Amino acid sequence: xxxxxxxxxxxxxxxxxxxxxxxxxxxxxxxxxxxxxxxxxxxxxxxxxxxxxxxxxxxxxxxxxxxxxxxxxxxxxxxxxxxxxxxxxxxxxxxxxxxxxxxxxxxxxxxxxxxxxxxxxxxxxxxxxxxxxxxxxxxxxxxxxxxxxxxxxxxxxxxxxxxxxxxxxxxxxxxxxxxxxxxxxxxxxxxxxxxxxxxxxxxxxxxxxxxxxxxxxxxxxxxxxxxxxxxxxxxxxxxxxxxxxxxxxxxxxxxxxxxxxxxxxxxxxxxxxxxxxxxxxxxxxxxxxxxxxxxxxxxxxxxxxxxxxxxxxxxxxxxxxxxxxxxxxxxxxxxxxxxx
Length: 340
Ligand code: XIL
Description:
The chain is about 45% helix and about 15% strand. With about 350 residues, the chain is α/β, with parallel strands linked by helices.
């Protein structure tokens, strides 16, 4: 009897103590990193920086490492914003996810002359230089890189971007090889959206990475962006992650947000919380998911309203930084039942 009472008291005490812990600590108990993207402009606020240091074990620069930012003017490097983010993260004991080296968006304007891309030789040299400089600069401080971003079309064929057009499909493997040479210890990822529930695009990405692995290309994982809506099917998420895991790859969730219509009433926040819960539960369940990153901290700063007019409120905190039901569900998932 005494033993039972002691046990009960112990469990209540343990659960009480853990319920005081931050998202970051709760995730750490599960061997998971909880992360967010951060835009440079947000770092001006001390309250914001404190919140990020408390709740997140991993950060991703939302824009600061993109080519158009690091080399706005040809030949002139600008890593001011990226350095600031990395230095703060290292000081706070956080991991940094590097984002992103090869993407058809946010390219520097000078890359094109009168709308025309450079020659194959020139583009190859420029891309190699960009990847090498960026990765080498943060060697040992960035644990994982999104090397190639969104290269697969929704139809399951490689996207007709400038890299494919000028360099052909080998640009993908080359990018991984160059990044690996610049930091052999970083985990190198292919990162994309729309992979959450399997289907033709996820299958095409699976064929792509299988091919890369067969060639001995140093790819370590596939990032699932998880920009989803309330109606995105997610029942195949764990199974889809498992398919990549079977190839020896990690499958972090890299850019989660759950967008909702501006016209929907406040009840919709509970539906959103359920979607977040499914995403985080899948990451906990899939052994290959080392980190769960949301694409921003608060609804005050999110890419959704500009990219999807009429939609927003996609993150865990509202525009006044207050935790939403989705935040509570992510916490609850990390806290888990008392016996775990
Ligand atoms: C977005 C940023 O959030 C915006 O600030 C920027 O204007 C455009 O890019 N997939 C990605 C991210 O991999 O880099 C994108 O970030 C969102 C979609």
